[in-house]
Amino acid sequence: MKGYRMPDIHLDSTDRAILTRLQRDGRIANVDLAEQISLSPSSCLRRTKALEAQGVIAGYRAELDRDRLGLGLTVFVELKAARHSREVSRQVEAELTAIPAVVACHLVSGDADFFVEAVVPSLAVYEEVLLDHILAIEGVTSVRSSFALRTVLSRGPLPLDASLSKGTRSS
């Protein structure tokens, strides 16, 4: 396939320990991180900087409480496109990602072409987003919305240890 290549990143157990800990607390001081994974601070910093340079660590950000910010309604939207082409897909992607309420967007297989997660303060605001933005996208032929009743897990860390590849979850 054009443009596809296997990742050339090799993570040893120390790299995985750094990444696992940083996923739980991206603000941890390097000296504390180094102590928790039994490395010298200089070695830990060097490895962390290398993971950043390789793009394994894509960035750091604050996690915000949606409810406390008045964004308590999470909507999952399945979209179908009129035609399946790279051009239509790029146009729909560009317009979806320009909508501030959209916090995640995936091109998917199955009954829908796109799966979107939107966060809004109320059903009335979602109606505006749906009618004024999503349904206004040229090429969108069908929309189906589902509403989250309760969030069970929304920001789990990526599974980096070997036991998780066998279908088990550890804490």
From TrEMBL:
Single GO BP term: response to amino acid
InterPro entries: AsnC-type_HTH_dom (IPR000485), Dimeric_a/b-barrel (IPR011008), Tscrpt_reg_AsnC-like (IPR019888), Tscrpt_reg_AsnC/Lrp_C (IPR019887), WH-like_DNA-bd_sf (IPR036388), WH_DNA-bd_sf (IPR036390)
Superkingdom of the organism of origin: Bacteria
GO molecular function: sequence-specific DNA binding
Annotated keywords: DNA-binding, Transcription, Transcription regulation
Protein name: Transcriptional regulator, AsnC family
CC per GO annotation: cytosol
Source organism per UniProt: Catenulispora acidiphila (strain DSM 44928 / JCM 14897 / NBRC 102108 / NRRL B-24433 / ID139908)
Domain HTH asnC-type residue range list: 11-72
SUPFAM superfamilies registered for this protein in UniProt: Dimeric alpha+beta barrel, Winged helix' DNA-binding domain
Classification via Pfam families: AsnC_trans_reg, HTH_24
